[in-house]
């Protein structure tokens, strides 16, 4: 039996209605114009609303097809997904003017941005982390501020502070809030681990609540708002590792790797020539805010959502469904935010590729950046050289996609039974 995920223009019904025996021909290809199209249209609305989309083939490779133009999204949202995919291609093209290679890093960065998440980019110096973030802000009509984190940086230097203002006409004095550099659409928190924890914590409220509280008053941040932080993994002297509470606020932990030989040659040729490329503007703030709302309206099948949930839950060593290697090597695993970000990342990846549904491959693609900073290994793993990356790879290989859902199995049997019934 073969189970595959359906294309975006096809939705697959589980079975015939219990009170309607199928009396069609044995080759079970059922079209939209069949005698049972009324039932199938009604069932499609339920299936699409619930996010169930399957392609089921029986032993003889006869497929129970149900071709339909019923879209999982309203027409306006479907067109918005196409605009989002086109905008993604334009943004990648503009970024390629300034940054050579790093396609996976760019994809993960844009997935997090359109899912309204924050990113932590980790890599050795000279891999264009700062250039990539600045070019992204330049290619969008967004306000950009860079905060260089240093040991003497104070929280008020980030969020802003209140100053005394005097009215020269009346002589009265009052307090006026002066916004800090955090009041921008895109914030580059450069070398965030070089500042003390109290200053790092100043970003917590901004990242979670999209506001800053000063002098007992709340000040809303611009919309959209993204924090893109960089971190150097080599130099640990004089640094302050981010606390777990703040690490969990980052949707993605993106590893920026070395370029290939061909890419490095292109970097050398570009940077040593008299070239000054400039990225063109592609989207503005309201347009990005609209497209980020479309991402959340992408439907997801129950079995795909359960797969994301299963991935996150299996990282917890004290859970009964934890894998044996997790119980052996993990001190603690991912929390509920991991499940949320797996689903959101899958939705954003599907939308950026122009699809109206989330596949299992979308969840697998975003699992490493979502999980790598939410899994803490124990002493046994450190002593044996077992890394978080190896654990995530093994987790993806051993986590079943179908689970133990008896309802799904019964549904498949009903589909096959209806094909053989005369």
Main attributes of the structure:
422 residues; alpha/beta; Rossmann fold; Helicase, Ruva Protein, domain 3; 3 domains; two-stranded antiparallel ribbon; 17 helices; 15 strands; disordered C terminus
Average predicted local confidence, pLDDT:
76
Integer count of domains: 3
The count of strands amounts to 15
CATH topology of the largest domain: Rossmann fold
The amount of beta strand, in percent, is: 5-15%
CA radius of gyration is 25 Å
Question: Biggest sheet, strands in spatial order?
Answer: 5-8-11-3-12
Describe the global form: globular
Structural class: alpha/beta
CATH architecture of the largest domain: 3-Layer(aba) Sandwich
| CATH top level class name of the largest domain | Alpha Beta
Can you say what the CATH homologous superfamily of the largest domain is? P-loop containing nucleotide triphosphate hydrolases
Q: What portion of residues is helical?
A: 40-55%
Query: What ranges have pLDDT less than 50 throughout 5 or more consecutive residues?
Result: 1-71, 404-422
Oligomer: single chain
Helix run count: 17
